[in-house]
Amino acid sequence: MTADPNVSRPEVPVRAGRPNRARRSRQFRILATHATLMALSLLFLMPLLWMMSTALKPTDQTMADPPVWIPNPVQWGNFSEAFSYSAKDLGYTPFLVYGQNTLFVTILAVIGAVTSNALVAYSFARIEWRGRDLLFALTLATMMVPGPVLMVPLYALFKEFGWIGTFRPLWIPAFFGSAFNIFLLRQFLRTIPMELTEAAKIDGASEWTTFSAVILPLARPALSVVALFTFMWAWNDFMGPLLYLTDQRTFTLSMGLQFFQSQHTGTPWNLLMAASLIVILPVLVVFFFAQRVFIEGIATTGLK
Amino acid sequence: MNVHRNQRVGILFALPWIIGFLIFLAFPLVSSLYYSFTSFSVLRPPIWIGLENYRELLTDTVFRTSLANTLVFTAASVPLATTVAIILALLLNTKVKGMAFYRTIFYIPSLVPMVALGVLWLWVFNGQYGLLNQGLGKLGLPEPAWLSDPAWSKWTLVIISIWGTGNAMVIYLAGLQDVPQSLYEAAELDGAKTLSKTRHVTIPMISPVILFNVVMSIIGSLQTFALPYVMFPGGAPARSTYFFSMYLYDNAFLYQRMGYASAMGWVMFAITLALTMLALKASSRHVHYEGG
Amino acid sequence: MNERFLILAAILVTGTYALVGSERAASRQVGSNRIVVTYWEKWTGEEMRAMKDVVSSFNASQDRIEVRYLSISGVAEKTLLATSGGNPPDVAGLWADQVVQFADAGALEDLTDLARAAGISEADYIPAYWETMNYKGRLYALATSPGSAAIYVNRDLVGPKYDTPEEFPKTITEFDEFVREVSIRDRQGSLSTVAFLPRDGWGLWAMPYLFGGSFTEGDRINVNGPDDLRAWKWVNSFAKRFGTRETQSFRSGFGNYSSPQNPFLSGKLATYADGPWFANFIRLYNPKVNWFAVPFPYPDGRPDLAGYTMLNLNTLMIPKGSKHKREAFEFIRYVQQQQIMERICIGQYCNTPLRKVSREFLEKHPNKYIALFDRLARGERAVRPLQMGVAAQVGREVGNAVDEIDLGQKTPEVALNDAQRRLEELWQSYQRQVLGR
């Protein structure tokens, strides 16, 4: 496994003398870390294992009482059945069409969030201007009003813009920043020493150069966190698509998952779980690759 | 430094948000504040009734119950989840092989869709054959009726909140990368052990990020909605899991009392604001900003 | 790495955008010379299939109107916001409970005259369902699939003494006796099978009606009358008989309603109250259960109270602001034909709301006891949804009061009085603020 770029980095020199004992104690520590991580992994893997197990069962074994962990027989066909669920009724494969819609909204939202929030957070964290702190306080405050009470006026607003029935309410706002991301990035940018940017400015760099050449590279871990969260949020968003989309073909995956639940005809849990797994797989992959960026940080940018 | 230039550049950089705020937030926020002084059934235009909604809140026993539930949940879950997330992030920041896998695994609970999560937890906490009680039974510990005993139902949700700290964990992990290696080296030269390095170097250095997570988790806990709504319809048993946001949502969409719900929303705003200020004030001595 | 990512993202965005764009253009072209009626419905899964079929056959039956069907969970929230925003669907498939809230707000088209002109009248419907669609003398909705409640019995768990519909207890006293005999404890003294629990299942919420009581008295809320008290005390007698904590821990082992963990399907409960659709859950999750269905028992010496059942009804309504009211009604009217209605109701495992029922419907229906559910719905003792703007709150408050009684937190009298007081206030403020009284 070479995913961790830090592994190859030279270790901090250990205290002089007794090199053997030091190495042994280091090995022991690594072993103990592995043991702890593995034990905890089981706890955190549980939902995935459970979903996997349910996804492969025949219907009458799903959530049986007493519970069954190992499906018998193992029904791999559930995945293809889930994939084409409702396809005949709708005339298209919802997974493909909804996947495309979801991808479209998600990619635009991520691009919007990464570009807009970095700028705003830079202003809040590293430029002194009158009214800044007041605006920042206001920014925090907007998160404290529960969402449901804003839905009616927001709907009216989007209707005024003619956005109902389009994807626009789902991604355009991302290009104007969000309080959560601004706050997050601001906190990160404030951990970067002031001397770094002041040195650049003394050398005659403009504010924009300082931002793009000095700060942005340093903020990559934090920016990737923003990208990841936005991806997750847009990918899983349910309320937005529910309220603003009006054509079944423009639905997103999170809404497609609802097709598996019904009031009077039962829920095929195995298919629902298979479908859920298909839906979270891309996010899992994105996370696996994104997490490298969180930890490369200073080590690779070579500063400090 | 040229103050005027700063003023202009600062606003310029913040412009996307200023515009976004004016377009997408200002009107909804002002409207909802106005609704809170009206009787508003959503389907008909609001009718001004002054302070009547707020007056009704004062005597509403369900409002009181839901608020108490929410505050208890917040008081329990914020410190617990914060501690667990920091410990996990530290653990995931050690340099052992296969870390990419561990990190991904620990993040999984934050990825599972709500429809799956709800049934999963009902299954884990099932009083008779749930995983948790099977484990407790083997250890000879009592096996509570997690879902049907009002004394335990809230704690079910606290436990789940600890387990779903993936997002906070990721933020800490990113924050840990900003701690200059030189500080650790200096501490080691002074003979510091791992624990004391954590206490005296790591924690102060990531304190801005801790503050962020604490504030966000206060806001998040106070607005907890989706999971209890799915797991405990109507806040059963006996409203022991009926949270503020659930009552607000029911008022807004089930009872069609948007005016009343808006009043609740602004009360929630005031409470959140007060608690956040408290956190900011308490932290001001401990949070260390490199950037000054 | 950075550039490659950007390029990749650019390709994805353009690709997706192009595809989505082309698709939408395509969907716009279909039936462009027809009048488009948008129809939002709550159904997903198999229920969606049943309705989708009907929509297709309506579209095929003529060439003037095209109904666009949107299946969506959360249809209530969506319709509410869209209607308030002046952008409603032409037809909304909501629950009967919402008829009142929407009608009180003046947000529904009055269908009375349209129905009369189309020859749809009271004579076509089972009385209780007809009353549900009407409010204050006006018709605001028309039916789709309904429901009625009866008791499902697991033949293998009730013993030879009770294992036919004829031998099953008819009165409350006999029923209590049955519960005593059939409930079983294991060696440690914990409950393993319970004959019946009046808090688990559907159709139990209107329990006071079973004892001759009700939730209202004229225009007043009355959830704490003597019959209400008697009903909830009977309900509480189960928790008392088995022990509050014991019942609680037994119920904590019940899993998801719609799964093999359903207490009736897992053999924890020998009888279970539910609507006709439950037969499908049995077929789906545990087809081995050998069952029959019976009516609820009635209080001793009161055969006039026999035949209790609780009803629900899915409805179609036209929100105010619909741009194609007449075309929308055309579709609704199409659904009301006996043959179409029976197709929907069979597809959704429900009884029919129509007075006329074909023999084929009763014979082909996947629930072998459909005749019982049908008969109960037609009966005098059928309880229809409360027609009150605060019906949802009545449900919540009463449910909570019964929780408190069962948990021993309050005496029945105190819990019901508290609920009554709260509901009176809510009803008064609804009357003042919404009805303008």
Description:
Chain A is mostly helical. Chain A has 14 helices and no strands. Chain A has two domains: 19-83, no CATH class; 89-260, MetI-like (MetI-like fold). Chain B has a single domain (58-283), classed as MetI-like fold, CATH 1.10.3720. In chain B, a hairpin with a 7-residue loop joins strand 1 and strand 2 (47-48). In chain B, helix 3 packs antiparallel against helix 11 (207-222) and helix 3 (61-92) crosses helix 13. In chain B, 51% of the residues are buried. Chain C has helices at 2-29, 45-61, 75-84, 97-104, 112-117, 127-133, 172-182, 207-210, 226-242, 244-251, 278-285, 325-335, 338-347, 359-364, 370-378, 391-406, 412-433, and strands at residues 35-41, 65-71, 91-95, 134-135, 138-139, 142-148, 150-154, 184-185, 191-193, 216-217, 220-221, 271-274, 291-294, 309-317, 382-383. Chain C has 437 residues and is α+β, with helices and mostly antiparallel strands. Chain C starts with a helix and ends with a helix. The longest helix of chain C is centred in the N-terminal third of the chain and has 28 residues, at 2-29. Classes of the chains: A mainly alpha (304), B mainly alpha (292), C alpha+beta (437). Chains B and C meet through helix 5 and helix 13 of B and helix 3, helix 4, helix 10, helix 16 and helix 17 of C.
- Fold-level CATH name of the largest domain in chain A: MetI-like fold
What is the subunit organization of this protein? heterotrimer
- Give the CATH superfamily of the largest domain in chain C: Periplasmic binding protein-like II
Helix content of chain C: 40-55%
CATH C-level category of the largest domain in chain C: Alpha Beta
* Strand tally of chain A: 0
How far apart are the termini of chain C?
A: 69 Å
Q: Globular, elongated, flat, extended or rod-shaped: what is the shape of chain C?
A: globular
SSE class of chain A: mainly alpha
Main beta sheet of chain A: none
Radius of gyration of chain A, CA atoms, in whole angstroms: 25 Å
| Estimated helix fraction of chain A | 55-70%
Task: Please report which band the strand proportion of chain C falls in: under 5%, 5-15%, 15-25%, 25-35%, 35-45% or over 45%.
Answer: 5-15%
Tally of helical segments of chain C: 17
